[in-house]
Amino acid sequence: MLAFTAVATAQTDNNATQTTTPATTTQQATTAPAQTATQTNATTAQPATAATATAAADQGDFKKIEQSQIAPAVLKTAVAKYKDYALVEALIAQDGSNYKLVLTKDGKDVAAYYKSTGEFIKEETV
After folding, report:
1. 18 pairs with which residues across the strands?
2. pLDDT per residue over 29-62, tens digit each?
3. CA separation (Å) from 94 to 38, 54, 61, 99, 116?
4. C-alpha–C-alpha distance, residues 65 and 121, integer Å
5. Are 71 and 90 in contact (CB under 8 A)?
6. Which of 55, 73, 93, 98, CA to CA, is 20 to 30 A from 37?
7. DSSP β-ladder status, 86-93 and 98-105
8. pTM of the model
């Protein structure tokens, strides 16, 4: 489990890589298997809307990532909303459009969904 904290972010203009440094570091080994799913059916392109973002969040086509890979806008918004929670697992949609953060506090686990811009989509109890 990782401590859920904000990170400082620096970006270089030459290669547009992102480096993050955790404000605090608390790590323990987790035994939960990575949740990776793939979708094989073809779909047609649709304009991005709040409805499609919510639908994508429900589909479960996410891959596990490290806390340092969470977009700074998502991390900033999530830390503000869930400041007393610990991050259990971070996942990103296969297309990079949405994040799913599994968080815990006092034995209660929640899944918070965010657009990559940091906009909150929804919360589910897990």
Report:
1. 11
2. 444 444 434 343 444 444 444 454 444 455 569 9
3. 8, 15, 6, 10, 12
4. 19
5. no
6. 73
7. antiparallel
8. 0.59
